[in-house]
Amino acid sequence: MARANGNAPTASAATITLTAKATGATPIDLGRKGASLGDEFLEHGTLTDAAGHSAGSFQLVAQLVSGKTRHGSEQTTMTLHLASGTLQVAGGHGLTEGYVIPVIGGTSGYAGARGTLTVAAGQHESERLTILLQD
């Protein structure tokens, strides 16, 4: 896989694999106390590559749009800040251990990016991110 500055994958890579580790989070409880429609969750953190090197940072906003925390769905938007630019992802998904949402664009080396982001549980309260970019 090609790399920019020796750390983060470049936009020419078809697949980017990262680990996301939250460094801060804020729940916003709207409406009824406890989990209810419209509640939001804000999170930010660090990204590392497969070798454990710093690859950037992320920001995430999720909103509960149906059901409850165990059997609901949410709308998520995420920005991944990488050495070659940013990637934007957004979409709805069920509240499960893993999910897939679309890559909807980016900046700099990722301008016009399209593809998918797969999120899976990682180790030590992290998440594995697999970004598959279309040619």
Class by SSE composition: mainly beta
Count of DSSP E strands?
10
- Secondary-structure element series: EEEEEEEEEE
Alpha-carbon Rg, integer: 15 Å
- Unreliable residue runs: 1-7
What is the CA–CA distance across the termini? Answer: 15 Å
CATH topology: AOC barrel-like
Strand residues, percent: over 45%
Walk me through the structure:
The protein is mainly β and 135 residues long. It has one domain (20-133): Beta Barrel (AOC barrel-like). Helices cover 0% and strands 61% of the residues. It contains no helices and ten strands. The chain has strands at residues 3-4, 8-9, 15-28, 40-48, 54-66, 73-82, 85-94, 99-106, 115-121, 126-133. The strands form two sheets. An eight-stranded antiparallel beta barrel has the order 3-4-5-6-7-8-9-10. Strands 1-2 form a two-stranded antiparallel ribbon. The model is unreliable at 1-7 (pLDDT under 50).
